Each structure stands twice: as C-alpha cells, then as structure tokens.
Amino acid sequence: MNGFDAWLAYLFDRPADDDSWDGRPHAWLDRYAGQDTPVAAAQRIRELFGNAGTLLRPHSDDQVARGLLEIVDGGELHALCSPRVPVVLRTGGLRSIVRLFAEVFAARIEVEHPRHLPKLQHACFMFFDIAPIDLGDDTVLDVLEDTLALPSVPCQRSALHGLGHAYWKSPQQVPAIVDRWLARNRHAPAELRDYAAGARAGQVM
After folding, report:
1. Is residue 205 in some structural domain?
2. If 28 and its partner were Cys, which of 10, 11, 77, 146 is the partner (CB 3.0–4.6 Å)?
3. Number of neighbours of residue 192 by Cβ within 10 angstroms
4. Residue 132 counted as domain residue
C-alpha cells in the first residue's frame, strides 16, 4: 500500500461513528505520517478532490463526511495556502475543490434537510466556513463562483455561505459575484435568493 492509498484508508475506511479508531495502529500513521510535508499533503488533496467521485464511491455518506471534515477542519487543507507549496500545485489543489463539490456533494445530496443536517450536508454547508484557506484570494473567489454555478442548491448555499464570510476581505468582488448569480438564477427558490442577498453584504449564519 502506497502513501496515498494508506491516507485514503485511514480517513475513509473507518467506521463513521467509532472514535476509538484513532488509537488503533494504521499503515498511514506507522509508515507515512511522520515524514509528511506540505507539498505531499497538497498533492494528495489535489488527487483526492480531483477524482473524488471515483475514489469515494465505495464509502457511505457518513464515512465521506467524516473523512472530509478531518481534512478540512483538521487543518490538512492548510497546505493549499502554504508558501512552501509551489503556486501551480496550490492553485490546482484549490480549483479541485469545485470537482469535489460537483462529484460528491451535488451527486449525493439530493434533498436538503432544513433541520438536523445529515453529516454530509453539514460538511457541504460548512466547508468554506471552516476551511483554513484565504477567502480573499483570487483563486478561492473563483472557486466560490464556480461552486455557486453548480446546479445544486446545497452547493450553491455552501458557496453563498463562503462568500458571505469572504465579503469582509473582498467587499467589492463578493457583491459582483453574487449579483451575477442572481441575474442568471431569477427562478431560484426565494429563500435561496434571500440568502444570497444577505451573503452579498456579509450577513450569513
């Protein structure tokens, strides 16, 4: 098992609700994690996100949510902003986020649950809120706009949530992005258009 496969197995092959798993021996921890670098982490993330539909197909929604949250909320995604990582790799990794949303979140979340969000829907909605990336970065703003353009209300809501937070770093770009979406989506649900209006002024929860 190579390092990438060991990393995938460590993140996604575990029971979704078994916290005791973290203390068990694993090839990723025993053979690879100690020699990890930001460049290697960025390469793994770009590979995973860029092929997420195929690589994550064997795993349940809850397993996928847990693994993705560990990457995002656990801080490993920070590699995509590290100055130690070449710009081309950082940019490619950030842009692969759109593929993740299209192939996993959009494909798997067919109906939104307004209360008691399932784990995968929670991971989708909170992605840009908890991701350790610079929301004012031009590439990240492009990622947010491309995610907003996906034909998926959960993905659109997530992007709008991220844009609402990005507003405080990019108060000129964010309203323009949201306005373009509003102009192209006049028949979107009224509740989502209201959320977009809040996002363009930095007012999201």
Report:
1. no
2. 10
3. 16
4. yes
| 99 CB-near residues (< 8 Å, 6+ apart) | 49, 50, 51, 52
**Residues 149 and 179: beta-carbon distance below 8 Å:** no
Alpha-helical regions (H) of 17-118? 27, 38-50, 52-55, 61-72, 87-100, 106-108
Range of the domain at 83: 3-199
Backbone angles phi and psi of 201, in degrees to 5: -115, 10
Number of domains forming the structure of the chain = 1
The CA distance from 27 to 13, in Å, is: 12
Q: pLDDT digit of tens for each residue in the chain (205 aa)? A: 799 999 999 999 988 776 655 566 688 988 999 899 999 999 999 999 999 999 999 999 999 999 999 999 988 999 999 999 999 999 999 999 999 999 999 999 988 888 888 999 999 999 999 999 999 999 999 999 999 999 999 999 999 999 999 999 999 999 999 999 999 999 999 999 999 999 999 999 7
Task: Enter the tokens of residue 68.
Answer: 């993705």
Q: Is residue 133 part of a domain?
A: yes
